[in-house]
Every structure is written in structure tokens, then in C-alpha cells.
Design a protein that fits this description.
Layout (H helix, E strand, L loop, with lengths): L1 H5 L3 H12 L2 H7 L5 H14 L2 H6 L7 H24 L2 H8 L2 H12 L7 H19 L9 H24 L9 H20 L7 H12 L4 H12 L2 H6 L4 H13 L5 H27 L4
Helix pairs in contact: 2-13, 3-12, 3-15, 4-6, 4-11, 4-12, 6-7, 6-10, 6-11, 7-9, 7-10, 7-15, 7-16, 8-9, 8-10, 8-16, 9-16
Length: 296
Amino acid sequence: MPRLLDRVPSSAWALATVLVWASLAPMGVSVKHLPPFLITGCGLVVGGLLALPQIIKQRLWRLDAATWAIGIYGLFGYHALLFAALQLAPPVAANLINYLWPMGIVVLAAWLVPGVRWTWGHAGAAILGFAGSAMAILGNHSVNAPLPTEWLGYGFALAAAFIWSTYSLLTKRRSHVPTAAIGALCLAAGGLSLLMHWLFESPVTPNGADTAVLILLGLGPVGGAFFLWDLALKKGDARQVGLWAFLTPVLSTGALAWQSGQALQWQWLAATALVVASAVIGRWAGARAAQASPAP
């Protein structure tokens, strides 16, 4: 089996990850009647259990404090904010704003990754990304202004994008940490989420259908996808693999619209195009800047 897996190209792992990630928002919407901390906690715990044998074998509870902090910041913070955003704001618009994170990785790399420079290409990517998020919001409110709770949801979606961008960049500095450590971090972040649910949210008992979705979240976009993405990055060029992430908002938006029975408005299609274009241009600008930088 290991030899068979070695023959799988990095692009196949990346595409598999994107297809799984595209199901995150539709699944989150299907259980939006459940509290966000409960959804986050159940999904992350199930995802963490996938790596439990390796966690025990490698004694991954001995991870250093910085790795624990980065993992909980990213896994707990991102998913809790995203599920809250999907509950408070129109899901398609909130989802598009959330998928500013590929562009955010490139733009914020100039501050968080040594040797990476800011260029006009990054500025153009940021402008396109901002325009896409604004169009996603306005496309849902052509007549009435967003309600205060909807503005809060949009803010949560933007914060989620920022967290995932910075989390991804911070983990680049910890290449020595094994892939199985993701499972340990998922268990810790999931446990924290369930504690937050117990402290701050009204207790809820999921029914059978809800439980199935929570398990699927952990097996897929809130757990298993992290391991697939790690395989893709380790087997291929990170810049090429990263391009696949830009398909996620397109697929996810289409899935949300199909789930809700809504026709895709031209504003949503244009917003998706702008968000994807911002990420592609930002990635191109980052590659050009890396080529222009002198070797250390």
C-alpha cells in the first residue's frame, strides 16, 4: 500500500483535498441549527481520531508549546468563526468572503515569511479580493442593507480567512513537525471547542442525521482533508499545488447554491471570479518576487 500511494501524483492529492473542502460550507449549513462550538468540536475530534494510532506511537502529546498554540489558533479559531458566519450571514456570500484566505496567504507572506517581498502584484491581488468580497455582500442585498447580525457574520467570515492565512504561513516554519501531529492538534482544538460549548452555548442533543453530518465533517473537510493536503504539499511544488485551492470557492459556491435551490446571481459569479483572480495574481506575484530575491 505505501508503494501504491507513492505513485499518486501531488496534483491528485491536491484535487482530492479541494473536492473535500468544497463540501465544508454545505455541510456546515445543513447543521446550522446546532451551536457553532458544538459543530467545530465534534468535527475536529472525529478528525483527530483518524491519527490516534500514530499519535500514541510517536507520543505526539510532547509537541512544543509553539506548535500547540499555532494549531489551536488555526484549527479552533478558523472553524468556530466560519460556522458562526454561515449561521449569521447569507451562506454563499459568507463563504466567498471566507475564501479570501488563498489571497491572504500571498499578501501576508511579506510580513510573516523571511525573505518574501511586497510587490505591486500583491497590491492588485488585495484590491481584487476586496472587490470580490464587497460584491458578494452587495449581491445579497440589492434592495435592503444587511442587518447588524449579517454584518457580524461577514466580519466572522473575514476573520476566519485571516486566521487560516496566518495559520498556514506560521506552520511553514514548523516543517519538522510530522503530519500525524495534525491529529493531536485537532483533538486539542476539538476538546477546547466542546468546552466552549459547555460553558457558553445552550446544550443540544444532535439527532441521527445531525450526528451523521458531524462525523462526515470530521472524516472530510474538518479532519481528513488536512492529511490529504499535507501529502500534496510534500510530494509536489507548493506553488503549483496551491493553485488547486483556488478552485474551492467556485465548487463550494456552486454546491451551496444547489443545496439551497438558488440560482447563481451574476454578482456571485463575478465575486467568485474576482476572489479566484486575486488569489492567482497574488500567487504569481509571490513567485515573481521569490525569483527576484537574491539567494541567501
